[in-house]
Design a protein that fits this description.
Elements lengths: L2 H11 L23 H11 L11 E4 L6 H18 L4 E7 L6 H11 L11 H15 L2 E7 L1 H8 L2 H9 L7 E8 L10 H7 L2 E4 L5 H15 L7 H11 L5 H17 L7 H21 L3 H16 L4 E2 H14 L7 H13 L3 E7 L5 E7 L3 H8 L3 H15 L2
Parallel strand pairs: 1-4, 1-5, 2-3, 3-4
Antiparallel strand pairs: 6-8, 7-8
The chain binds adenosine-5'-diphosphate (ADP) and magnesium ion (MG).
Magnesium ion binds next to helix 3.
Length: 407
């Protein structure tokens, strides 16, 4: 056999640790969601009024990422529409992930399409679409429930017009009624929602708390039994993944860790998934998250981060905002931009701090006043690695280190 044949044969014959990886994918929603019995019942108790022929309250759901908001909502809606259909109740729901439908117009078109309406690609005026939806509802449905998941994306991107329109639509409907569910991870979301919209959206609120370690363990155990072949994953590995994810209480993170650990085991030809694989997985998952966060930062903040990376790489001394401004101004001058005020820089720094990329402390120098000291919270090599993929950044960075920081 040629080397090539051998390699391919080996790959074909080699057993994977997975029985079926789909159970560890983001889209898979199990029929049972351990430790969410209460939230499921809360939602169900509100929405059950559909089966009693009365309009359910609008619902506002919030809680951190990975606490099961989407999974719980989809599960309840799936069961509810099955029951409604059997009972001959004309109920329909439209699920919109606002991360993908960020403008009021696109979200509206999505609702129309979910109702089976065809909207020409060239578009229609909003009021026309709204009246098409109204007519369709009056003719075909008793209840429509519209779910705006990750609703903060929609509102930040294009305001809350559509929410306002939907909350008002009921007064124009005779035979059918609309209810809304808004879901968000963003705790500050309520602040930038119009007060009228907020109050009608939150007729009921359901709060999702982060999972603790034992809860995450149960969730992982359920998935592991489905996804892995029998006996390949160490119980200790599952516990370790639960412990890591418990820092944020995030079930998505926990499940990702398990999947990546299995992939690493497969890649290295191991037949068992161990704590060691989970450790490696956690580094890989961490890097991916950081990469994603940094790659969507606005250019100015990426450049500011480049300045901080350069400083923390080479300066022994503490990084003050003054030094950051000095280096950042230099970067801006290199690309033909005007310097930015210290105040703006402080705003940028505050945002980087919220994202967990840096931390800062105020240090007092007695009568010489106070200054902010910046510290990178992520290994500088990782940041360099991500930012210098861009040739312009890479060139700026080498120049920066050569001429500004090290001499
Ligand atoms: N209680 C649970 N039991 C099983 N899987 C869960 C549970 N809660 C969340 N998950 C899973 O964790 C992932 C993240 O949950 P998700 O509902 O998307 O969180 P959120 O919408 O709050 O960010 C999904 O893959 C989901 O299926
Ligand atoms: Mg979600």
């Amino acid at each position: 056999m040629s080397v090539l044949d051998e390699l391919f044969e080996q790959a074909l014959s080699k057993k994977s640790v997975f029985r079926d990886k789909k159970y560890l994918s983001v889209d898979y929603i199990p029929d049972e969601l351990p430790h969410r019995e209460e939230e499921i019942l809360r939602l169900a108790n509100i929405l059950v009024s559909i089966l009693r022929d009365s309009r359910p309250s609008n619902i506002f759901e919030y809680g951190p990422v990975g606490t099961g908001k989407t999974a719980v909502t989809k599960l309840v809606l799936k069961k509810l529409s099955e029951k409604a259909e059997k009972a001959g109740i004309r109920f329909r729901y439209a699920y919109i992930n606002c991360r993908f439908f960020r403008t009021n117009y696109r979200a509206l078109v999505k609702v129309a399409m979910e109702l089976g309406l065809r909207i020409p690609r060239t578009g229609l005026p909003v009021d026309v679409i709204l009246s098409l939806i109204t007519r369709k509802l009056e003719e075909n449905y008793r209840f429509l429930l519209v779910v705006f998941d990750e609703i903060d994306w929609l509102v930040k991107y294009s305001g809350d017009d559509i929410l306002y329109q939907f909350t008002r639509l009921n007064s124009e409907l005779n035979k059918s009624e609309i209810s809304l569910i808004g879901i968000t991870n963003d705790t500050r979301f309520r602040e930038y929602l119009d007060a009228r919209v907020l109050s009608s959206l939150s007729e009921e609120t359901v709060v999702f708390q982060p999972y603790n370690q034992e809860q995450l363990y149960d969730i992982l155990l359920q998935r592991a039994r489905l996804a892995f072949r029998e006996g390949v994953i160490d119980d200790e590995a599952i516990r370790y993944a639960a412990a890591i994810a418990a820092r944020d209480g995030d079930a998505r993170r926990a499940i990702d860790l398990l999947r990546v650990a299995g992939e690493i085991a497969d890649r290295s030809g191991d037949f068992k998934v161990t704590v060691d694989h989970v450790v490696q997985a956690s580094e890989e998952v961490e890097r991916n998250i950081i990469r994603e966060i940094i790659s969507i930062l606005p250019p100015n903040q990426q450049l500011l981060l480049l300045a901080i990376a350069g400083l923390s790489k080479l300066s022994r001394n503490k990084i003050t905002t003054g030094k950051v401004k000095h280096v950042f101004d230099w970067i801006l001058s290199q690309i033909g931009k005007q310097p930015i005020t210290l105040r703006r820089i402080n705003d940028y720094l505050a945002e980087l701090e919220t994202l967990g990329i840096i931390s800062s402390t105020i240090v007092s120098f007695g009568r010489h006043g106070r200054t902010r000291i910046i510290k990178l919270e992520i290994p500088v090599e990782i940041i360099e690695n991500i930012l210098t993929k861009d040739p312009l950044y890479s060139e700026l960075y080498s120049e920066l280190i050569r001429t500004i920081i090290s001499p």
